[in-house]
Amino acid sequence: MNPLRSPAISRSPVRRLARSRREVLGFLGSVAGTALFGCSRQPEGLPPIASSGSAQAEALLDCIVRPQQTAGPFFVDTQLNRVDLRTDPATGQISAGVPLGLLFQVFQVESFQPEGPRRCVPLPNAVVDVWQCDAAGVYSGVRDRRSDTTGQAFLRGYQRTDQNGVAEFLTIYPGWYPGRAVHIHFKIRTGSPSGAIAPSSYEFTSQLYFDDALTDRIHRQTPYTARGQRAQRNHQDAIFQFGGAQLLLPVAQTDWGYFGRFGIGLEMG
Fold first, then answer.
1. How far apart are CA 70 and CA 262, in angstroms?
2. Domains identified in the chain and CATH numbers
3. What are the Intradiol ring-cleavage dioxygenases domain coordinates in residue numbering (predicted)?
4. Average pLDDT over residues 87-110
Protein backbone atom coordinates (compact mmCIF):
# COMPACT_ATOMS: atom_id res chain seq x y z
CA MET A 1 0.00 0.00 0.00
CA ASN A 2 1.20 3.50 -0.79
CA PRO A 3 1.59 5.27 2.60
CA LEU A 4 0.67 8.60 1.01
CA ARG A 5 -2.80 7.24 0.26
CA SER A 6 -3.30 5.18 3.40
CA PRO A 7 -6.48 6.26 5.26
CA ALA A 8 -4.97 5.08 8.55
CA ILE A 9 -1.94 7.33 8.14
CA SER A 10 -4.12 10.25 7.07
CA ARG A 11 -6.23 9.92 10.22
CA SER A 12 -3.29 9.60 12.62
CA PRO A 13 0.00 9.85 10.76
CA VAL A 14 2.48 8.41 13.26
CA ARG A 15 0.63 6.73 16.11
CA ARG A 16 -1.53 4.48 13.87
CA LEU A 17 1.61 2.83 12.47
CA ALA A 18 1.66 0.59 15.52
CA ARG A 19 3.32 -2.55 14.26
CA SER A 20 5.95 -0.74 12.20
CA ARG A 21 6.60 1.73 14.98
CA ARG A 22 7.20 -1.04 17.51
CA GLU A 23 9.74 -2.55 15.15
CA VAL A 24 11.46 0.80 14.68
CA LEU A 25 11.51 1.61 18.38
CA GLY A 26 13.06 -1.76 19.01
CA PHE A 27 15.96 -0.46 16.95
CA LEU A 28 16.00 3.12 18.18
CA GLY A 29 14.95 2.60 21.81
CA SER A 30 11.49 3.29 23.20
CA VAL A 31 10.01 6.78 23.29
CA ALA A 32 10.68 6.94 27.01
CA GLY A 33 13.21 4.17 27.15
CA THR A 34 16.93 3.99 27.62
CA ALA A 35 18.94 6.88 26.23
CA LEU A 36 20.17 5.48 22.93
CA PHE A 37 20.28 8.84 21.21
CA GLY A 38 20.44 12.38 22.46
CA CYS A 39 20.79 12.36 26.23
CA SER A 40 23.78 10.20 26.93
CA ARG A 41 27.27 9.97 25.53
CA GLN A 42 27.65 6.53 27.12
CA PRO A 43 24.21 4.90 27.00
CA GLU A 44 25.25 1.41 28.11
CA GLY A 45 24.00 0.58 31.59
CA LEU A 46 22.32 3.91 32.24
CA PRO A 47 18.87 4.03 33.84
CA PRO A 48 15.82 4.78 31.66
CA ILE A 49 14.88 8.38 30.97
CA ALA A 50 11.34 7.73 32.18
CA SER A 51 9.68 4.56 33.39
CA SER A 52 6.63 3.30 31.54
CA GLY A 53 4.50 3.84 34.64
CA SER A 54 5.47 7.42 35.43
CA ALA A 55 5.61 10.45 33.16
CA GLN A 56 7.43 12.35 35.93
CA ALA A 57 10.37 9.96 36.26
CA GLU A 58 13.83 11.52 35.93
CA ALA A 59 17.28 10.06 35.36
CA LEU A 60 20.81 11.19 36.07
CA LEU A 61 22.35 11.46 32.63
CA ASP A 62 25.23 13.20 30.90
CA CYS A 63 23.04 15.07 28.41
CA ILE A 64 24.09 15.94 24.89
CA VAL A 65 23.68 19.64 24.20
CA ARG A 66 23.36 20.04 20.43
CA PRO A 67 24.78 23.05 18.55
CA GLN A 68 22.48 25.78 17.33
CA GLN A 69 22.50 26.66 13.63
CA THR A 70 20.97 29.38 11.52
CA ALA A 71 17.23 29.41 10.82
CA GLY A 72 17.97 30.45 7.25
CA PRO A 73 15.70 32.68 5.15
CA PHE A 74 12.70 30.33 4.91
CA PHE A 75 11.19 30.24 8.40
CA VAL A 76 7.52 31.29 8.37
CA ASP A 77 5.64 31.30 11.68
CA THR A 78 2.51 29.65 10.28
CA GLN A 79 1.39 28.39 13.73
CA LEU A 80 0.00 25.23 12.15
CA ASN A 81 -0.50 22.76 15.00
CA ARG A 82 -0.39 19.38 13.26
CA VAL A 83 1.42 16.05 13.08
CA ASP A 84 1.13 15.43 9.33
CA LEU A 85 3.14 18.14 7.57
CA ARG A 86 2.73 16.81 4.05
CA THR A 87 -0.56 18.48 3.14
CA ASP A 88 -0.85 22.08 1.95
CA PRO A 89 -3.84 23.58 3.84
CA ALA A 90 -4.53 25.99 0.97
CA THR A 91 -4.86 23.37 -1.78
CA GLY A 92 -5.21 20.02 0.01
CA GLN A 93 -2.36 18.67 -2.11
CA ILE A 94 -0.02 16.14 -0.48
CA SER A 95 3.72 16.60 -1.03
CA ALA A 96 5.11 13.63 -2.94
CA GLY A 97 8.08 11.83 -1.47
CA VAL A 98 9.27 8.97 0.72
CA PRO A 99 7.43 9.13 4.09
CA LEU A 100 9.59 10.08 7.07
CA GLY A 101 8.43 9.88 10.68
CA LEU A 102 10.21 12.21 13.12
CA LEU A 103 10.21 11.88 16.89
CA PHE A 104 11.83 14.65 18.93
CA GLN A 105 12.51 14.09 22.62
CA VAL A 106 13.34 17.36 24.37
CA PHE A 107 14.99 17.69 27.77
CA GLN A 108 15.94 20.55 30.04
CA VAL A 109 19.47 20.23 31.39
CA GLU A 110 19.82 20.95 35.10
CA SER A 111 23.19 21.17 36.87
CA PHE A 112 23.72 20.25 40.49
CA GLN A 113 26.99 22.20 40.60
CA PRO A 114 29.18 23.95 38.00
CA GLU A 115 31.43 20.95 37.37
CA GLY A 116 29.16 18.23 38.72
CA PRO A 117 26.79 15.76 37.08
CA ARG A 118 23.90 17.05 35.03
CA ARG A 119 20.30 15.90 35.09
CA CYS A 120 18.00 15.57 32.09
CA VAL A 121 14.37 16.40 32.84
CA PRO A 122 11.80 15.87 30.06
CA LEU A 123 10.54 19.28 28.92
CA PRO A 124 6.75 19.28 28.45
CA ASN A 125 4.68 21.85 26.56
CA ALA A 126 7.58 23.16 24.45
CA VAL A 127 6.72 24.19 20.89
CA VAL A 128 8.71 22.25 18.27
CA ASP A 129 8.52 23.83 14.79
CA VAL A 130 9.64 21.89 11.72
CA TRP A 131 10.05 23.21 8.17
CA GLN A 132 11.79 21.85 5.08
CA CYS A 133 11.88 21.82 1.29
CA ASP A 134 9.94 19.33 -0.81
CA ALA A 135 11.37 16.68 -3.15
CA ALA A 136 12.07 19.38 -5.76
CA GLY A 137 13.97 21.58 -3.29
CA VAL A 138 11.13 24.11 -2.90
CA TYR A 139 9.92 25.68 0.37
CA SER A 140 6.34 26.77 0.93
CA GLY A 141 5.31 30.29 1.89
CA VAL A 142 8.21 32.10 0.19
CA ARG A 143 9.15 33.77 -3.08
CA ASP A 144 12.60 33.40 -4.61
CA ARG A 145 14.21 33.15 -8.04
CA ARG A 146 13.06 29.56 -8.51
CA SER A 147 9.45 29.66 -7.35
CA ASP A 148 6.63 31.59 -5.67
CA THR A 149 4.77 29.56 -3.03
CA THR A 150 3.39 32.43 -0.96
CA GLY A 151 0.07 31.47 0.61
CA GLN A 152 1.03 27.78 0.76
CA ALA A 153 2.19 25.92 3.88
CA PHE A 154 3.23 22.40 2.89
CA LEU A 155 5.95 20.75 5.00
CA ARG A 156 5.55 23.19 7.88
CA GLY A 157 3.99 22.88 11.30
CA TYR A 158 4.50 22.54 15.02
CA GLN A 159 3.65 20.23 17.91
CA ARG A 160 3.84 20.75 21.66
CA THR A 161 5.87 18.20 23.59
CA ASP A 162 3.97 15.84 25.89
CA GLN A 163 4.85 15.03 29.51
CA ASN A 164 7.80 12.95 28.31
CA GLY A 165 9.17 15.79 26.17
CA VAL A 166 8.06 14.03 22.97
CA ALA A 167 6.76 15.64 19.77
CA GLU A 168 6.02 13.59 16.63
CA PHE A 169 5.67 14.47 12.95
CA LEU A 170 5.02 12.77 9.64
CA THR A 171 6.77 14.41 6.70
CA ILE A 172 8.79 13.31 3.65
CA TYR A 173 12.48 12.79 3.11
CA PRO A 174 13.68 16.22 1.90
CA GLY A 175 15.03 17.02 -1.53
CA TRP A 176 17.91 19.37 -2.23
CA TYR A 177 18.64 22.84 -3.56
CA PRO A 178 21.91 24.53 -4.61
CA GLY A 179 24.40 25.44 -1.91
CA ARG A 180 23.08 23.15 0.84
CA ALA A 181 23.29 19.54 1.93
CA VAL A 182 20.00 17.74 2.56
CA HIS A 183 18.52 18.98 5.84
CA ILE A 184 15.41 19.75 7.91
CA HIS A 185 15.05 22.88 10.04
CA PHE A 186 13.65 22.85 13.57
CA LYS A 187 13.03 25.39 16.30
CA ILE A 188 12.14 24.75 19.96
CA ARG A 189 10.35 27.48 21.92
CA THR A 190 8.88 27.81 25.38
CA GLY A 191 6.05 30.17 26.20
CA SER A 192 2.44 30.23 27.27
CA PRO A 193 0.83 26.87 28.15
CA SER A 194 -2.26 27.93 26.18
CA GLY A 195 -2.94 26.69 22.66
CA ALA A 196 -1.50 29.77 20.98
CA ILE A 197 2.23 30.39 20.68
CA ALA A 198 3.07 33.26 23.01
CA PRO A 199 6.25 35.37 22.82
CA SER A 200 9.02 32.90 23.55
CA SER A 201 10.96 33.01 26.80
CA TYR A 202 13.52 30.58 25.34
CA GLU A 203 14.34 29.66 21.75
CA PHE A 204 16.67 27.09 20.22
CA THR A 205 17.10 26.82 16.43
CA SER A 206 19.04 24.21 14.50
CA GLN A 207 18.94 21.69 11.64
CA LEU A 208 18.86 17.92 11.13
CA TYR A 209 21.13 16.21 8.59
CA PHE A 210 21.16 12.78 6.96
CA ASP A 211 23.75 10.18 6.13
CA ASP A 212 24.93 10.79 2.55
CA ALA A 213 24.68 7.11 1.59
CA LEU A 214 21.03 7.03 2.70
CA THR A 215 20.28 10.20 0.74
CA ASP A 216 21.93 8.69 -2.35
CA ARG A 217 19.67 5.64 -2.07
CA ILE A 218 16.46 7.59 -1.54
CA HIS A 219 17.19 10.21 -4.18
CA ARG A 220 17.47 7.47 -6.80
CA GLN A 221 13.69 7.05 -6.43
CA THR A 222 10.85 9.13 -7.83
CA PRO A 223 9.97 11.96 -7.40
CA TYR A 224 13.55 12.90 -6.42
CA THR A 225 15.06 11.76 -9.73
CA ALA A 226 13.28 14.60 -11.54
CA ARG A 227 15.50 17.06 -9.67
CA GLY A 228 18.72 15.42 -10.84
CA GLN A 229 21.82 14.58 -8.83
CA ARG A 230 22.43 16.86 -5.86
CA ALA A 231 25.44 19.14 -5.93
CA GLN A 232 26.23 19.32 -2.21
CA ARG A 233 27.17 16.60 0.24
CA ASN A 234 27.49 17.06 3.99
CA HIS A 235 31.22 17.76 4.05
CA GLN A 236 30.78 20.40 1.33
CA ASP A 237 28.11 22.33 3.24
CA ALA A 238 29.51 25.40 5.02
CA ILE A 239 26.78 25.29 7.68
CA PHE A 240 27.19 21.55 8.33
CA GLN A 241 30.83 22.20 9.23
CA PHE A 242 29.69 24.01 12.38
CA GLY A 243 28.49 21.05 14.43
CA GLY A 244 26.59 19.18 11.74
CA ALA A 245 28.05 15.82 12.78
CA GLN A 246 26.19 16.20 16.11
CA LEU A 247 22.95 16.86 14.23
CA LEU A 248 22.87 13.74 12.05
CA LEU A 249 19.49 12.04 12.40
CA PRO A 250 19.62 8.28 13.13
CA VAL A 251 17.16 6.76 10.66
CA ALA A 252 15.70 3.25 10.36
CA GLN A 253 13.73 1.84 7.44
CA THR A 254 10.18 0.57 8.05
CA ASP A 255 7.57 -1.09 5.86
CA TRP A 256 5.96 2.33 5.25
CA GLY A 257 9.04 4.55 4.84
CA TYR A 258 11.67 5.76 7.32
CA PHE A 259 11.68 6.78 10.97
CA GLY A 260 14.13 8.91 12.96
CA ARG A 261 14.35 9.77 16.66
CA PHE A 262 16.29 12.81 17.85
CA GLY A 263 17.00 13.59 21.50
CA ILE A 264 18.24 16.98 22.64
CA GLY A 265 19.17 18.57 25.96
CA LEU A 266 18.61 22.32 26.33
CA GLU A 267 20.60 24.51 28.71
CA MET A 268 17.94 27.08 29.50
CA GLY A 269 19.43 28.72 32.59
1. 18
2. 3-266 (2.60.130.10)
3. 121-181
4. 95
